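can u do me a favor
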């Protein structure tokens, strides 16, 4: 048996009585649930490298000129290229992998969960905004505090 509990513009709720138990089920509304979320890849640092995702969709690359920023005198600054964001179905577990170029190292990679060192991390996509962050540094201590 279904009973309508909605009144004067409030959201309609249907109740089903099953063997003495009552289950509340939201009625249809004009709001549409998001079925996809966007994963954004942010790359920081003074080095060069690429961040990719599995399943595919992101292939984001940061290139810094040699000696940037201290020895860099002229020409283009850092260049960010490729696909640095992608849409995935909500609930998809995406593995994000960071690979530094030769002469560089990965200083950090974070997918928004507990930090675990390494060159890959996982992010479960939720509706809306999802981020992964990485930092590449050139060999030679340019990113170190010392």
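np, heres the sequence
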């Amino acid at each position: 048996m279904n009973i309508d509990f909605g009144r004067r513009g409030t959201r309609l709720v249907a109740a089903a009585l099953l063997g003495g138990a009552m289950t509340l089920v939201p009625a249809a509304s004009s709001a549409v649930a998001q079925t996809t979320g966007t994963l954004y890849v942010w790359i920081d640092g003074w080095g060069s490298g690429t961040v990719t995702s599995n399943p595919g969709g992101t292939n984001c690359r940061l290139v810094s000129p040699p000696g940037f920023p201290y020895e860099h005198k002229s020409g283009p600054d850092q260049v960010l290229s490729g696909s640095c964001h992608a849409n995935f179905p909500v609930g998809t577990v995406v593995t994000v992998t960071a690979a530094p170029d030769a002469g560089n190292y990965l200083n950090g990679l974070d997918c928004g969960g507990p930090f675990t060192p390494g060159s890959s991390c996982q992010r479960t996509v939720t509706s809306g905004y999802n981020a992964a962050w990485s930092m590449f540094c050139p060999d030679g201590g340019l990113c170190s505090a010392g």
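Residues 109 and 118 are 7 Å apart (CA to CA). hope that helps!!
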